[in-house]
């Protein structure tokens, strides 16, 4: 994510020279109203630059603390607060856009670039020019609603054709600067997100159908399958769209995720020791019974009478799948255009970009606003080690892991019992001590 590191606010220095992206420069140029102010405002002098083409200093911000001065060639119209976002209270803004103003400002900074600069010709019906914030607000309203476009146009005072054009341009502008929000994690972050109460699990793979609404000719566009890998905080860490006629199985085998995992170049990080004999299980993801059982993709047991360790595996597996399905429900509830009831472009590439944009927006909201989420600022940094998938036995790996789960559960229950007993004996001891205190001691405690 394009932000200054938190430690910048603690650096004691007089001068700062910064070379950054146009998105981060926009946040700096916003000064007190931007999210980066507290990180650089204490420097006596700041020079910040963003490139365009071969010019590394095309865009700039010059800041001086005393006397206060801030100069920038970043267009004011691109930073000015739009008509549609002029809420005096944060609650009203968040109620309408389902995100904080800080998150909204970050999204604006992502799309503030050459692809949006020629849009000053787009206006409201009263001929007022739409600012960048207005255009982003219109696009978000369109993506968040399953109402007809004409209804949204009437509510915001913009022609229907303008809403569709602005939304398509917004989605196009998101394509490059936002795509890292669904990047596969690097090794260090992956170790931190392994969860779902399934040791060494790196995510849940799910497939869902995205229906397309009618296009300009009022013809139904059909639908497409989307395969996603979901992490414990409900972010989509890998997205793959299918082509016509695909099912869950063919979509999986077509995906880059499948091909890289089969080659051993993904899910090739730390291994989990699951036995006293030194047995280990590699990194894995989980999926429902519709997926094949693979060394890196574990599915539930299908037998009738399950042993205790198999039942424990299925219990944890089911809980994780349910949690992941909630992420898909949250996506479609927040970005209702994915429900397919309103207009969609007929072009397949444009359809795909809308789906990706909604997934990235879903992730951005979580990363900016959910305390449980880690802000993913890193680019891809895969392990160079190649995992020898062909030598691994998926059935054995699942059995070993299941036995490990059951053993760890028994251990956890035992520790909880010991803690409860210890707590109880401690309370009893304190009670006895209190009963033997003298009156003078009690007064001393009360008045100390």
Automatic annotation (TrEMBL):
One of its GO terms (molecular function) is nuclease activity. The keyword Chaperone does not apply. Residues 427-440 have a biased composition (Basic and acidic residues). Pfam families: DDE_Tnp_4 (PF13359). Keywords: Hydrolase, Metal-binding, Nuclease, Nucleus. Signal peptide: none annotated. InterPro entries: HARBI1-like, HARBI1_dom. Residues 408-448 are annotated as: Disordered. It is found in: Nucleus. It comes from the Eukaryota. This is DDE Tnp4 domain-containing protein.
